[in-house]
Amino acid sequence: MSTLVTGATGQVGRRVLTELRTRGLSAVGASRSGERRLDWTDTSSWKPALEGVRSLFVTVPMASGLTERAGAFLESAADSGVGTAVLATAMGAENGPPDSEQRFLESRVRESFDRWTIVRPNWFDQDFTEGLFARLARSRNGRLELPVPKRSAVSFVDARDVTDTIVAALIDERHHEHEYTLTGPAPVTFREMVRMTKGTDSPVWRYKKVDEAGFYFRATDMGLSDRYVDTLNERFRAIANGQAAKVTEDVRRALGRDPVPMAKFVREAVI
Ligand SMILES: NC(=O)c1ccc[n+]([C@@H]2O[C@H](COP(=O)([O-])OP(=O)(O)OC[C@H]3O[C@@H](n4cnc5c(N)ncnc54)[C@H](OP(=O)(O)O)[C@@H]3O)[C@@H](O)[C@H]2O)c1
Question: From CA 103, how far away is CA 75, in angstroms rounded?
Fold first, then answer.
């Protein structure tokens, strides 16, 4: 019996799959291009994807319009005998409008599974090296341009802390019926971040504030959808309002150790 890891080619799923296997546990990666094909939009892929599966890590791309389908998949999974599900949404999801995609998924997981855990990470450290910020900066010669003042702070979390929490929740029943908001140990401003990466081979080493319209044109030029960019702009407003600077104790609560500081991540990742 195995754990099915959805989003297995993405930043989080890839790490969860590797970590489960490193621990000698049976796990299979699923996505449209993953080792086991799963497409939220193709119901014929669901049953084969669930073959031999008893636990599930669920992640659905933000602002993708896929949550209703993913919700139906979760019901199928529970009906086919999957008893444990761990869902990743994002910090603050619980405060979104009641009809938001992330709140819908969270309630579907609570309702469908006997054993469930929800993790809500803040922005990842790895967004600067392999995620959205790196992609944006690479297209502007290393300059990250966001509609956020450079003095705004975010309690970025290391994707390794997110991964360890998800894996712990998949294998240890003490995490069941827990909801964790995962942050790093301290808020870090964009100004501090580029000071740390200056002179390294980081994809991001300069920063400039732009307005939302400017960001919209740059991001849609790169192929990001209107809907995704609108959601990003909402999240950037939350950063500018200070909402993403909050630090929680939840990495410590879940793992019994401190979260990885950003300075350590930068030293290890880009120098
Ligand atoms: N990055 C951050 O800072 C951050 C912070 C907080 C929360 N989160 C949340 O964490 C979650 C994971 O983020 P991430 O950065 O790991 O995502 P990601 O790197 O963008 O990966 C998305 C995954 O979804 C799969 N996928 C896309 N369309 C699919 C479809 N139609 N059917 C099945 N699978 C599909 C992709 O694989 P294929 O292309 O092979 O299908 C990929 O594996 C997201 O919900 C995100 O909102 C991210």
Answer: 16
What are residue 29's DSSP bridge partners? Answer: 5
User: Domains of the chain: which residue ranges?
Assistant: 1-121, 122-157+182-247+257-271
147 CA distance to ligand 1 middle (Å): 23
The yes/no answer on whether domain 1-121 falls in CATH 2.60.120.280 is: no
Class of domain 122-157+182-247+257-271: alpha beta
Q: Is 88 in the pocket of ligand 1 (CB under 6 A)?
A: yes
> What pLDDT, on the 0 to 100 scale, is given for residue 201?
85
Using most ligand atoms within 8 A of CB, pick from 9, 16, 231, 232 the residue to mutate for ligand 1. Answer: 9
Closest atom, ligand 1, to C-alpha of 13: 16
Q: What is the pLDDT of residue 64?
A: 86
How far is C-alpha 197 from the geometric centre of its chain's CA atoms?
A: 22
The residue ranges of the chain whose pLDDT is under 50 are none
Residue ranges of E strands in 106-203: 115-121, 143-146, 153-154, 178-182, 188-189
Q: Say what the pLDDT of residue 83 is.
A: 95
Q: Is 159 in the pocket of ligand 1 (CB under 6 A)?
A: no
What is residue 198's predicted lDDT score, i.e. its pLDDT? 85
- Count CB atoms within 10 A of the CB of residue 196: 20
Ligand 1 proximity of 134 Cβ (cutoff 6 Å): no
